[in-house]
Design brief:
The protein is of the alpha/beta class and 255 residues long. It has 10 helices and 10 strands. The strands form 2 sheets. Strands 7-6-5-9-8-10 form a 6-stranded parallel β-sheet. Helix 7 links the parallel strand 6 and strand 7. It starts with a helix and ends in a 5-residue tail after the last helix.
Length: 255
């Protein structure tokens, strides 16, 4: 029952940070995990996994890869699961060791970074991670106050995106040093900012703020430019929707 105990413990952020591991739940998410470079330590399964062909195929893949699978009854599985309607499978994986310096661009290369300033909703963060990966951003940086990037809900919402898309946590001081060293311009999303147009610097960090409060004082003190999305009829957009629009407009065109 080691994997069961571990999965239960990893529901807490401190346990994830201490152990360097996370829980990946659901058939689609575990499929993506198996296609990624992450190390899978084990899986927990309930009878529900074998009720669909896709679930049965996933079990076969886990076993073929040599991943230890622990079977438990449905009631026990729910004590480790994070979803209201579990699909009967979760896996424990090692969180990749990534640092801000890993995102440094090569000489003369462009760079696009998404910076999350105290974004707290796991669904929003997961969606933003997946969008950043889809639109060719080089990495996502979580600032203090942002929900843990390896929270089970974030992992599920990102649908495996940050198994490969570099996502790191950092301090503002570290971001200052990084941007100065690599000539990265910092733009912040704000309703009062300049309407976004087609021009943008080659090296850019785009900061999105908290769902309710927007950009915090630390972010506001550091941005080189505030930018906005021209809107009609409504005053604001969900932060993940806004991030998607801005990232699409700012996506790198040289890849």
């Amino acid at each position: 029952m080691k994997i069961l105990t571990l999965a239960r413990d990893l529901r807490r952020r401190k346990a994830r940070e201490r152990g360097g591991a996370c829980v990946v739940e659901g058939i689609r998410a575990v499929e993506a995990l198996l296609d990624s470079p992450l190390v899978v330590e084990g899986a927990l399964a309930s009878p529900a996994l074998d009720t669909t062909p896709r679930g049965a195929a996933l079990r076969a893949t886990l076993e073929a890869r040599g991943v230890p699978v622990t079977d438990v009854d449905e009631a026990t599985f729910t004590t480790a699961a994070d979803t209201e309607s579990p699909q009967g499978v979760l896996a424990v994986a090692r969180v990749p060791e990534r640092a801000l310096d890993d995102l440094a661009p090569a000489a003369d290369a462009t760079v696009r970074l998404l910076v999350l300033d105290a974004v707290q909703d796991p669904g929003n963060v997961g969606t933003m991670l997946r969008t950043a990966a889809a639109l060719g951003f080089d990495g996502t940086v979580a600032m203090p106050g942002t929900v843990d990037l390896w929270n089970a809900k974030v992992v599920r919402s990102a649908m495996g995106a940050h198994f490969s898309h570099p996502a790191v946590s950092a301090t503002w001081e570290a971001v200052d040093t990084f941007c100065s060293a690599h000539d990265v311009v910092v733009w912040g999303a704000d309703a009062g900012g300049r309407p976004l147009d087609a021009s943008s610097p080659d090296r850019l960090a785009l900061v999105l703020g908290n769902e309710g409060a927007g950009l915090g004082s630390d972010a506001q003190a550091r941005v080189d430019q505030l930018v906005s999305i021209p809107l009609t009829q409504v005053e604001s957009l969900n932060v993940a929707v806004a991030a998607g629009i801005l990232m699409y407009a700012l996506r790198p065109h040289d890849r």
